[in-house]
Structures are given as C-alpha cells and as structure tokens.
Amino acid sequence: MLFSLMPVIFIIGVIAIAFEDKIRINKAAVAIGMSILLWGIYIVGGESIFAGHPNSVINALEGVYPSFLQMSVREQFNLFVEYSLVESLGDVSTTLFFVLASMAIIEIVDSHGGFDIIVNAIKTRQKRKLLWIFSFLTFALSAILGNLATVIVVIALVRRLIFYKQDRLIFASMIIIAANAGGSWSPIGDVTTLLLWTGGNITVWSQTYHLILSALTMLVVPLIFVTYMFKKDDISIYFEENADDYVLSHIDPRFKRTILIVGILSLAMVPFFQLFLNIPPFMGVLLGLTVLWILTDRLYYNRKANGLQELRVNRVFTRIDVPTVLFFLGILMSVASLKSAGQLTSMSEILNKAVPNPEFISIILGLCSSFLDNVALVAGTIGMYPIAAAGPFMIDGTFWTFLAYCAVTGGSILIIGSASGVTVMGLEKISFGYYLKRFTPLALLGYFAGAAVYMLLF
C-alpha cells in the first residue's frame, strides 16, 4: 500500500511545484519535503519489494559484503538503502556543485560590471534590430552560461535599452524562447541537458551536431513573427550608464574585461576539459571559480573602500540563490528513490506499450515539460530507460538526443514551463494570460518546426 503511494506523491509534488505561486509555498520546500517522504516510505515499507526485485546494486553488494547472502532480508535491505542513498547523493552532488559554482561565476562577472561591456557594444537603437540582437545573444550565451543565468543577465541589459513596459514584455517573452532554444544544444545550457551529459546518455559533439539546426529553427520561426510586433522605424528610449556608481567607478576597465573573459571561459571550457582531459564537469567549473577567487582576493585584500569588499567571492556566496540549489537536490533525490524502488522500470514498461515510438515519447515529454518541471521529467526518464548497447536508447541514441531538444524547448510553450520562464515572469511581471495569448502559439509552432527538422535529418 505504501509502495503504491510513492508515484502518487511524486506527481502531486510536481504539480505543487508547477503551481508554486498559487499555493504560496516555495518549490524548494516542496521538493525537499517530497524527497524525504519518498525515501521514508521506501525505508519503512520497501522490504518486501526489495526481496522480490534483485538488481545490479544487490549484485554489487554481494561482491562488497561476502556474508551478504547469509544476512536476513531486513539486514540486506538496510545495506541496500544505505548504498542507494550514498550513491544517489554522490551523483546528485556533482550536478549541485556545478550549478552552485556556475551561479557564483555569473554573480562575480555581473557584480564587476562585466556584462556592461556587452551592452555598451550595441550601437543600434532600432527595436527590430535590438530584438534580433538580444535574441541571438541570449541563444549564444545560454549555451555557455546556462539559460537561467542568461535570462537574468539579458533582462538586465534589456532594461538599460528598452524603456517602455509593453515593449519590454515582448522582448522578455522572446528572450524566454531564445534562452530555452540556446540551452537545448549545449550540455551545460540547461539542468536537463547537464543531467543527460553527466549521466553518460549524450556526448558534447553529438548533441551540438544533431540539435544546433533544430534549436535555431525553434528560435527563428517565432522571432520572424515577433519582429512584426514593432514598426520598422520604432526607436528605443534608453538609459545611459550611471557613471556615478561608486563601486563600479573604482574598478579598472581592464579588470572588468579580464573578469568577463575569465568568467565566460570558465564555463565554455568545461566541455573541453571533460572531452580531452576526462575532468568531470563540476571540477572544471570549480577550477574556473578558483581562478576568479584568486584574482579578486588579490585585488581587494587591502582595499577597504566602501562596497569593494562586497565583490570578494566569500561575499558573493551570500547572494547566490540557494533555494534553487535545494530544489534540484529535492527533485533529483525524489527521482532516485523511485528508481531505487523499481517504480521507474515499471513506468517505462507501461509507456513503451502505450507509445512504442521513442521519438513520440520525447515529443510527449516535451509537451509535458510546458507545465511540469522538466528536471523531474528528464531525471525520471533517465531512471526509466537504462542506456542500451544499440538502438535509440544507446549513448547518443536518437531518443536521448531528441529528448534534450524536446524537454528544454518544450518549457517555452507556457511561461511556467521552465526555470527561465518563471524567472522572467517574476522579473518583468509578465502575466500567464499575456504569454499564453501572444507567445504560446508561436512557441508551439517553433517547437514542432524544430522537431520536424530533427526528424527529417536524423
């Protein structure tokens, strides 16, 4: 009875996360509570399930503990749960440290005014041109910085150049689509693609090669229609950079550029470290954070001017969005409990019978990610379908590659479908109805157009 409640609790938890604003409970609290409840149910009522479901973990335990077969079922189960918890937490921690270090790098660059260099390089003030510049800038940066960090940065830049609220709503909505499109073809562009990469389901070059054209299609198709929301000769009213900012005025412009270059390279080089040196992604990004830490500590150690000490990395950590990190912890550990209990295997068997075509499964999951959390969906899918030796479920198989596109870009269909969408929704106060009416049809058109490009080519 308790065992059958586990998937029900997970579904209720995911729905509660999707409607965070309605129930007024932070999604991190829901995710953490859900993970503890699921593991608690399995620990209390999973002994009978364990006895009838041998798997690779049990085989591994037999090798580690020579007396494993002579233990009672309860003792075996206790060892199994301990092993599963430690292994799951280890896998999850690599993702969490990557996200945490990435957030710190972005905050360091932003607090030093590094991104102002980019906005100051934009000379045009025509709204149509600005829309294309910001869309492609978002598309490119999302592949390097991740879509969540990118929308925060780009929205800050847009506010400098676009004065009227109604115009910013159009820019902001298009930035959501561009960010998710850009995040789909990079292993570090979204948490879901990061999960697929670190899980060994896809590799860097294969993902980039197979998805870059689909991602561009997802961007360009809606962008063409959105362009005509502005008149050809519309010019933006903008703000000049505030030269009186005390902290930024005390930073050498050359150091700003150095921080920007080191920060972007710290993230952009992560796939290359993994590919050529076999350095895990979280270690690669932590290396970049360490370089920035050394640079800033050396510069600010003896500078006591008001505000400059706030630019040091130990202060930056106090401004990081910790609830988001805890949210990922809760979701990933919840999925790990379902995988450990064998629930995901059962669910995959049911889904295979209902939808035998793997590509259609990816499309359906992408549509579901428009209203359900895509991190949970992808983490659950990884647990449902083990990597096969051949076919669509092998490493770089069509299922995993197409899932990377569908799960990320499907989050653009509704504004609540992705972390980047929810973030922009809060930053610019975009209503659910506004986005649904004006941008959901365009996002759907781009989603299916990109999917069609992938299926025609591969």
Quick structural gist:
The protein has about 450 residues and is mostly helical. Helices cover about 75% and strands about 0% of the residues. The protein contains 25 helices and no strands.
Notes on the structure:
This protein is mostly helical. The protein has a domain at 95-319. The protein has 25 helices and no strands. It has helices spanning 2-18, 20-23, 27-45, 47-52, 56-64, 73-111, 116-120, 127-145, 147-161, 165-184, 191-198, 204-227, 246-249, 253-268, 270-277, 281-300, 313-316, 322-340, 343-354, 358-368, 374-384, 398-409, 419-428, 432-438, 440-457. Helix 9 packs antiparallel against helix 10. The longest helix has 39 residues, at 73-111. The model has no long low-confidence stretch (mean pLDDT 85).
What is the CA–CA distance across the termini?
44 Å
What integer is the average pLDDT? 85
List the total number of helices: 25
Number of strands: 0
Strand content: under 5%
The SS-based structural class is mainly alpha
The ordered H/E elements are: HHHHHHHHHHHHHHHHHHHHHHHHH
Task: Assign a percent range to the helix content.
Answer: over 70%
Shape by Cα distribution = globular
Characterize the biggest β-sheet: none
**Multimerization state:** single chain
Rg estimate, integer Å: 23 Å
The stretches of 5 or more residues where confidence is low (pLDDT under 50) are none
